[in-house]
């Protein structure tokens, strides 16, 4: 695990750059073009690339060396940002859409490759703990990136923001390149980069329906969770402005800071419980956690006093972190040669849900209140999770099937890691 902690540090640094970049680039697009349509098109191109690259990434990480893919993805993003930084002002608007494609595709590829590699880097018995560390690092990076973006752009300018972002990717690529970690099962015949038979990655959804329908149901829940997540992200500035028109950023800051605290606490709890019991929470825990998460987000927008609203954000953050760790850990229980396609499908589903939700929730907020929109989207997630729970109960009464419990070999007592 000592090597993995360094990997978490490098990943957190690049995540900070990504969140800083998310704010700086969106503002820069509008300033450079003077067009809200151009800014929206930039976001649409990036989200569309995220969706499409999920399928491609799943195939790539199933065939090629994952460590090299992650290093290459970081270097490509750094090169794209440096190109934008050095380009003449007249060329920059056209390069923005190229940058959207590069950053969207490479970020998805890096995420799919890393998640697929965790069991091989730390050992299957440590994957829950490792996933918790990654989620914690990314949560802290998100808060730092969003909080500092305005200051960096206002005080130092766009060029400094782009240079800082490129530097974070270079640091991440260097850390990954130097770490002596294995990212693929030793017995995998494709470890040398040779391609599998054409079409090996086709029909992922059909295969899941036949062999692991509950995994497919979990992926569907994550897609609907993406809808819910987009709704509260879009509604939060409007709701915060209605609470305090003179200081609209106050509630937003409180919300995300509290959410991050809950997220981090959840990682500590799940790591300790897993270490004590030697078991990984499964589908039922995932569905229950997703219900609590969505309910918490709905309560945040109910117009409660500050303290109850902050407590609801804390609960939502804790449930959010818990469900993500359980979900990723469950998909990682699949054999190594299947993980890439699973995480590729998952990335496409989640990004589709989030992108579609951004468009629909933005339109609905023109006519409905933030509470109504958030309740509708997260209520849909609660309904789907409830259906999944009922399915699990019914199947449980018939006897555990292969997708209900993790294989026995995947539940050893926690021992010292391989890092």
Helical stretch tally: 13
For the record, the count of structural domains works out to: 2
Q: What's the overall geometry?
A: globular
Structural class: mainly alpha
Residues in β-strands, percent? under 5%
* Name of the level-1 CATH class of the largest domain: Mainly Alpha
CATH superfamily descriptor of the largest domain: MFS general substrate transporter like domains
Give a quick summary of the entry.
By secondary structure, the protein is mainly α. The chain has helices spanning 2-33, 36-63, 66-86, 92-122, 127-156, 158-178, 204-211, 213-243, 249-277, 283-300, 306-331, 336-364, 370-398. α10 (283-300) packs antiparallel against α13.
List the helices and strands and how they pair.
Layout: H1 2-33, H2 36-63, H3 66-86, H4 92-122, H5 127-156, H6 158-178, H7 204-211, H8 213-243, H9 249-277, H10 283-300, H11 306-331, H12 336-364, H13 370-398
Helix pairs in contact: 1-2, 1-4, 1-5, 1-6, 2-4, 2-12, 3-4, 3-6, 4-12, 5-6, 5-9, 5-11, 7-8, 8-9, 8-10, 8-12, 8-13, 9-11, 10-11, 10-13
Detailed description of the structure:
The structure is a single chain. The protein has 419 residues and is an all-alpha fold. The protein folds into two domains: 184 residues, MFS general substrate transporter like domains (Growth Hormone, Chain: A, Up-down Bundle); 204 residues, MFS general substrate transporter like domains (Growth Hormone, Chain: A, Up-down Bundle), CATH 1.20.1250. Helices cover 79% and strands 0% of the residues. The C terminus is likely disordered.
